[in-house]
Amino acid sequence: MRTITQRCTQIVELELDLEEFVRPDHLEYIQARREALSSLVDSIPKSLRVLLYQGHDDAPWKPAMSPLNVIPSGVDSVSSNLRDLSIYLQQLKLVNTTIAYDFLCPLDEKGQPKPGSLQLNWPYLEVLELEGIPPWLPLGEPTYHNTPEDQSEIDEIENWEDVICDVEAGWGWPELPTEEHFHRLLISLGYAAQRMPRLKNVKIEVESHRQFTFCLQNKADQIILK
């Protein structure tokens, strides 16, 4: 695929459907697959204007289990390469993609734009859709947490193999959004949107028991926020 995209130097639209279930215990393969995705995104010519990507959420066996760390090096090149490509796009749609919540405008630990972030501009971007975003970050950090009662039950689990094999156990999603992560998502989006003069539609969905949804439509005579 990378060779094809490199040779299509004037490509304008690209739709990638790389949804592929891989057993969570094949973690090294999942990590290598993400590295391959990073390399592919980095190879896409800057002539591209529309990117539609359907991935896989790299989920653990059960929602009650800890998420997977898909970037053992700590360097999230998928998020950074998607950001670098996005400044040339008119439409960006990601589905089931594990990604940094502040990938558009990277923030520091205090929630402030990192050096260089405010120099980014998206002169063409009109449509931004992030659907089915998993409730965790690439390093395996969850963006939702359990109630104290649910967490106490999880802490008592001694053998996760039993939970995996039990068809009825382990399906409870963490219910409470961790505010810090969603603050960062909205702060990053806010900074980025100020530099998207042609932006018409934004849709962000974080998949969980309590789904987070943000929708914005910028029409000629009104702005609709849902």
TrEMBL record:
<protein>
    <submittedName>
        <fullName>Uncharacterized protein</fullName>
    </submittedName>
</protein>
